Structures are given as C-alpha cells and as structure tokens.
Amino acid sequence: MQDAAPGQVSYASDRLRPVRIWLYGLAAFVLLIVVVGGITRLTESGLSITSWKPLSGVIPPLNDAEWQAEFEAYQQIPQYSVLNSWMSLSDFQYIFFWEWFHRLIARFLGVLFIVPFVVFLVQKRLSRELALPLFGLFVLGGFQGALGWWMVSSGLTELTSVSQYRLAAHLTAASLLFIALIYVARSLSPGRVLGRVTSFHMSTGVLLLVAVILQIGAGAFVAGLDAGMGYNTWPLMDGAIIPNGLLAMDPVWRNLFENALTVQFIHRGIAYLIVAYLGYLLWRRQQDGGFAGVHGWLPRIGFIVLLQVGLGVATLLMSVPIGLAVGHQALAFMLAGLVTAYVADLRRVR
User: Fold this and answer.
1) If phi over 0 gives left and psi between -120 and 50 gives alpha, with beta otherwise, what is residue 195?
2) What pLDDT was estimated at residue 2?
3) How far is CA 192 from the centre of its chain?
4) Interatomic CA distance for residues 184 and 23, integer angstroms
C-alpha cells in the first residue's frame, strides 16, 4: 500500500485509515491536555489536589464536608501557608477545578487509546509489527501520568510550587508522546511521497526536530521558575544583549536550570538559533531545486517558527498573560508536529 501511486488508494482498500484518524485524534487530545496543563500552571492550580487517587479521584467533592476536607488538606502544604493563606473556600474551588479537570482528561486519554486499540486488534487492522509499538505508546502515556504525580509531589512538602526539573521532564515527555503519535500516523499514510531526499535532508530535518524538543524543555524551565515574569524587554535583556549575572550561581551548572536570568537567556538563544538554522535550510533548499514535493513542508515550518517567535516576544513584553502564554506553548507543540510530519515524509520518499 505504501508504494501505491497518489490517488490510487481508495478508502475501502485503505484499512489503516481509521487507525491514522485515531492516532491524529489522540495527538490532538494530547495537545488539549497540554493547553489545560498550561492554564493549570498559570493559575497556580497544580498543587490544589494533594493526593493521587487514580480511580476515585475522577469524582470531585460532592458536598460541603468533602470540599472542606480537600481544602484542609491543601492548607497543610507550603503554598497555602506562604502564598495563599488569604484564600476562601470558593477561591480554592476555582484552582481545584483546573487541576481536577487536567487529571480527568489525562485519564480519559487512556480510555481513548485502549478501546479503539482493542477494536482494531479484533478487526485485524494492526499487524504485530504495528501493534507492539502502538502499545508502547500506551505505556509512554501511562508513564506521563506517573511523571505528573511525581511533579506535583515535589511541591507538597518544602516548595511553594513544583520543581522546574520535574516540570521540564513532564512537559518534554508530553512532547515526545505527541511527536510519536504524529510520526506513526504520518508513516502509515498510503501512496508515495515525491521529491529527492539525501542523507543531508534527513539529518538536518532530525536536527531541527531535536532543537524544537530542546526548546520545549527550555520553555518548561522558564515556566517552572516564572522566569518570563522578569526581564520583560526585547531584544535587550536587562539592558544588554548579553546581560550580567548569567553565571552568578555556584557551581556554574546550576545557572543553566536555576538562575531565572540565565534560563530565560537560554530560551531566547535557542529561539535565535532555530530561526537562523531554518533560514539556512530554506536558503539551501532554494538553491537546490526549490520546495516541490516533500520539501514543501519547509516554508510552512518557517512561517510557524516566525509566528511562534512573535508570540513569544508578545508574551514576554506583556508579562505572560494566560492567553498568550498558553498559545505560545500550544504553538510549540504544533511546530513540533509539523517538523515531525516533514521527517516522516522524508523517510517515505521512494
């Protein structure tokens, strides 16, 4: 089926079409979870539920006594005593909702995976070679849930927020799950992909994807330290292109992950490198045959990169409003999805 010419694969003969739709749907749902997770973080709601109950936690408090019990549990952690001692029960219910909703849809992702997966197995749409990797994605999704609780638990005893290290692990794992879903779905597309592909194209495409993943992780460190709340100027940062204080912490490596100034500087720097690198790829492709066939992805990726940079600058200059910040995070995942589709199509060229 992979070798069929474009337009010669009918829906009736394309037994993997429902599988692709399912995988793209799962990727879209992962993106929804990321968006809700971003809102949860920006509203400082992530520590409102102080226990992990995989089954019973689906049901929120249903009466005054249950709400009071949840509120009293929250009052025992540092975030409440240090930052939120002013909260009333109604204030708490607002932050509780976002964390509960985030956990609910994350659980529902498992249902959206396993039920169609079993159906497709029964229908014999999945070969053994395909079923095993897909089940691996299910395991990765479960691991992501465990990472989420590991992240939350870091803020329940000593910190007033979650560890930026664990937040970065959680968000990066989500990006890997999203990318894997897009990659498998795209790889199952019927027909041929046209274009000339060399090892240069493949290696540079993979390198671009790696850079985007690193940038998502760097963005998580910015979020975890609230580093975007400071140094809200551009292109200068603290009045300079290279600000003072980048290596103020000792040992030096801590600055890369714990110094808000350095973390934001790194996030900016990776963005500049991605823009320059993509500019080089576009120039190189223009000199080497243009953007027909599979390389038509590059101009689209370039447009999204510029849009993402503009959105990031606006988010910074406006001191991280929720709408812009969530949009910036969501667009980063969409960019990763586009680059993934490009890499998948590079591999499909015959």
Assistant:
1) left
2) 38
3) 30
4) 8
Instruction: Find out whether 208 and 277 touch, Cβ atoms under 8 Å.
Output: yes
Q: Where are the alpha helices (DSSP H) in 188-259?
A: 199-224, 255-258
How far apart (Å, rounded) are the C-alpha atoms in residues 17 and 6? 15
Q: What is the DSSP-derived secondary structure letter of residue 229?
A: G
Residue 102 assigned ligand-binding role: no
Task: Tell me the one-letter amino acid at 292.
Answer: A
Number of helices and strands in the chain (H, E): 11, 0
pLDDT tens profile 110-160 = 999 999 999 999 999 998 889 999 999 999 999 998 999 999 999 999 889
- Per DSSP, the three-state class of 9 is coil
Rounded CA gap, 177 and 146, in Å?
A: 14
Task: Tell me if 201 is assigned to a ligand binding site.
Answer: no
CA-based nearest residue to 164, from 147, 182, 151: 151
Encode pLDDT of 283-300 as tens digits.
999 998 889 899 999 999
> Strand, coil or helix: what is 240?
strand
Phi, psi angle pair for 193, to nearest 5°? -110, 130
Cα distance between residue 124 and residue 122, in whole Å: 5
- The residues, any chain, with a CB within 8 Å of residue 185's CB and separated by 6 or more, are 19, 20, 23, 24, 27
Helix axes 164-187, 17-42, angle to 10 degrees: 160
Domain boundaries, the chain: 1-192, 194-350
Q: Are 16 and 299 in contact (CB under 8 A)?
A: no
pLDDT band at residue 13 under the 50/70/90 scheme: low
Q: What is the pLDDT of residues 234-251, one digit of tens each?
A: 999 999 999 999 999 999
The whole-model pTM stands at 0.93
Say which amino acid occupies 277: Y
State how far the Cα of 164 lies from the Cα of 40, in Å rounded to an integer: 15
What residues form DSSP beta bridges with 123? none
Confidence of residue 55 (pLDDT cuts 50, 70, 90): confident
Distance in Å from the first CA to the final CA of the chain:
13
Q: Does position 325 have pLDDT exceeding 90, yes or no?
A: yes
